[in-house]
Amino acid sequence: MLEVRDIEAGYGSSQVLFGVTLSIRQGEVVTLLGRNGMGKTTTVRAIMGLNRISAGEISFNNQPLGRVAPYRAARAGIGLVPEGRQIFPTLNVRENLIATAANHRRAREPWSLQRIYQLFPRLAEREQHLGSNLSGGEQQMLAIGRALMTNPLLLILDEATEGLAPLIREEIWRCLELLKQQGESILIIDKNLDALMRISDRHYIMEKGRIVHQGDIQLLRDDPDLKYRYLGV
Ligand SMILES: Nc1ncnc2c1ncn2[C@@H]1O[C@H](COP(=O)(O)OP(=O)(O)O)[C@@H](O)[C@H]1O
Ligand SMILES: [Mg+2]
């Protein structure tokens, strides 16, 4: 469904991506790995149309993206949980969830507030609290809930468990497992290899703006060399 072919992108005159190629098929959970500063977020920004690509192609369900306005990626059905969460601080939980709700894909069972609250009961308890008054974990749940409320065909999570306490982190992984079971297509950027092994079908590893390795994530587990070389673990 998502095809990224040989893209180059950067910030101003500094080039960050030097030919990134990756793809995601319907129903797959794919992981993008790599140390800090390797270009993972920039790749996501390019997919979302937030960074313009200077070479290559991006298409989603055979629609060209990459050189179109940012809203087109969301319209086409890509839901982003951005790095740093970026929820609306002056809206409460409920308002955050409905602010960008949409059903462009005409899902037969669209996400509703009730379904989000089922997934994250904590959000129901905090329904009237402002975004700025939530804990980091709650903000993260809200960011995921908000993305789901757009009924995305593809969900992208950029460091969704970063900086969270272990229990909250586990709650997020459980939710992602559930989404996988429901057949959602997901691109995950995260550093937690053990949790990724549970849900990821394939992985790509990025280094200095290039994909340097790809394959079955289970094989990565048994390759300490590779893990050390590209992930520093
Ligand atoms: N807004 C920005 N302006 C200029 N350079 C940036 C900006 N954001 C990221 N970079 C640079 O781009 C490179 C890749 O960053 P990023 O895509 O955020 O990496 P990752 O998500 O893998 O940690 C880094 O060298 C970073 O310093
Ligand atoms: Mg990043």
TrEMBL record:
SMART domains: AAA. Residues 2-233 form the ABC transporter domain. Gene3D superfamilies: P-loop containing nucleotide triphosphate hydrolases. GO terms for biological process: L-amino acid transport. Keywords: Amino-acid transport, ATP-binding, Nucleotide-binding, Transport. It comes from the Bacteria. GO terms for molecular function: ATP binding; ATP hydrolysis activity; branched-chain amino acid transmembrane transporter activity. InterPro entries: AAA+_ATPase, ABC_transporter-like_ATP-bd, ABC_transporter-like_CS, BCAA_Transport_ATP-bd_LivF, P-loop_NTPase. Belongs to the ABC transporter superfamily. This is ABC transporter ATP-binding protein. It comes from Aestuariirhabdus litorea.
